[in-house]
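Appendix B. One record, verbatim.
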Amino acid sequence: MQEKIPPFSMPMFHEWVPKGIRPWIYLLQAFCFQFGGGVYLGAMNDMIGEYQWMREDVQFMMYCTLAGMAIWFPVLFRMKFRFTNKTLLRAAMLGVAVTNLLTAYVSWLPLLLLCCFIEGACKIQGTFECMSNVQLWMTPTRDFRVFFPVLHLFIMGAQQINGWGAAWCEFFGDWRLTHWVVCGLMLCLLLFQHICLRHFRIFPKTPLWGIDWLGMAQWVALVMQLAALLNYGDWLDWYNSPTTWILTGTTCVTLATILRRMQMLPHAFISRKVFKFKHVVPILVLIALCEMLLGTEYMLEEMFCEETLHYTDYMGAWRYWPALLGCWAGCGFAYWWMKMHNFTYIRLAVVGLLSLLAYLVQMYFLISPDIAREMFFWPVVCRGFAATVLGIMFMISLHDSMDFLTFFQGLSLFNMLHMVLGSLFGVALYAKLFGWCVADAFARYAPSVNSGSVARIAQGDGGVASFVEQMVEVNLAVGIKTVYGVAIFGCILVLAGFLLYDAPMRRHTRTMQPWRALGRRFLRPLVRRKVSAV
């Protein structure tokens, strides 16, 4: 007998609020929570110029925010059982508002890192509280093939609009204007909460006993140590610096204590049971590999736009709109693939990797000092599409591979790799390869420069300074193109692994036809049209 699903309701609203708009109000609140970021990369250069920070410092603040979001996942439901919906939303809104205000005016780096971490936790708590209350409205059967595409529709959309808004706030006023806008938005939501919502408990009040807070602190330390090692490693010249050796040693000690605690405690912050599910470890490895490939956005694409094309923040902000188009197209495609046709997730990953490969190949052939920015449109669309499709696919695969009790622990590991460590490892690898490639390019070009050629250059229109600037731009472009080529080979290897796993000799138990049958189905109308034309 099929279980009877209760009708959807939102009793936390006062009765005078129309029932038809209540879910949309919560979706709007979730969208607003995603604007909080602590540090906004669209205004990175102004922050670096005002406080004389390094670029690595500002990037590390961003990763602290993402780490706060990733670490807080196992605690989300415990908070929901302990506090009312109104209390949690109020606390999250106040946390985002206060930390945004502090990050705009505090210059002490340790306090800024703490503020960014707290903001990440408040941001994910508010988003979860809003989306969990409207989940049954979106899908009465709790079908995550519907929920995750809709969730990414808001999350990915807000991220792109957030970066675009930060760049233009910097252009029209001051980089702190973005922080004030987010603070004002949170205060408006707080006023709305006070007027329209009441305290209501969906679940019985459950104390916060049994949470492994010490284990949570150990995971925070591990993620921050790894992030610092990967973020500052290139600046420290890796293991030629004693700081890197000390950081590596403390990271190993932290990892050892975490593993020991997982063996001793049956209810550790992240249980060892998570790693016993059949497909969890391969999924986590694939997440790390895909995020490494997507790390080209943060390293190569940003460097090419700033160092070679000399784009300012607001000139490069137009790229957020093609990325937004790709993200929303990826959400629609994932919904069509998984829900409407129930195709296999492996082949959805193949589609995502093909889109990522298309982005890398287009960027490889487009890299040039005299390129027009409009030519970046389709590569950026492919990047946004690939990132969204792969993210949704991995979350669905993780959900289907685990039980509900450990799913949020798996989500925490997923987001540690998805938002922090995977892309950081890729950026660190690309930075090292880029340094080798640029040094090699200058070494190959140096023998052609002698006293005679310098004299001829000095007599030209631009002089020696113009020649040196042009030479630097060309060698930077060569280095970026070379690293893009390495990323293309890496993407082909990962794609080949998926295709081999889905080879025809394996037993097919899925509803989708094999690739060969789909190819014949696609080519048959074209062949008939050609024969009829002859």
